[in-house]
From TrEMBL:
Oligomer and partners: Homodimer.
Protein's recorded name: Thiol peroxidase
Organism (species): Paenibacillus marchantiophytorum
Catalytic residues as annotated in Swiss-Prot or TrEMBL: C67
Enzyme Commission designation: 1.11.1.24
Family: Belongs to the peroxiredoxin family. Tpx subfamily.
Domain Thioredoxin stretches: 25-174
Annotated gene: prx-3
Reaction(s) this enzyme catalyzes, per UniProt: a hydroperoxide + [thioredoxin]-dithiol = an alcohol + [thioredoxin]-disulfide + H2O
Disulfide bond is among the record's keywords: yes
SUPFAM superfamilies assigned: Thioredoxin-like (SSF52833)
Amino acid sequence: MTQITERTGVATVGGNPVTLLGPEIKIGDQAPDFKVNKDLMTEVSLADYAGKVKLISVVPSVDTGTCDAQTRRFNVEADKLGDDVVILTISVDLPFAQSRFCGAAGIDKVITLSDYKYRSFGQAYGVLIKEIQLDQRAIFIVDANDTVRYVEYLTEMKEHPNYDAALSALKELV
């Protein structure tokens, strides 16, 4: 069995320190593969988005204010980015909850993916919170060749990412 990296002192939830499982991804790294659910029965991986620039927006749960705002913001921006870009929002929410949220919020450009079954994404990208089994908020931009071009790990779960910096980095690739 492979030992999972535990990172402490890098993130908090409501000011309380938590442990992140998995490695810290850095710019220039090859994007790790993952297995997540598009719906209850359909699993997808990084390969399903081959040849596209990917903005991966990681949220703890679409049912919180910050996560809602983050997902809505990237949904609005998605219209301006063209067909060579895909925006993936990944959380541990069940696919049912993601679908309900998207329907109620009019989210139709962002693809929501669920890390609930395997926590594969969370562990591969170093965002799985050991204590509560949710993914810590983060942004990753991966180019069409699956090289990581932008990383933002949020140190506090309730904080918003730097939308402008992420979108600027994304636009440099398209």
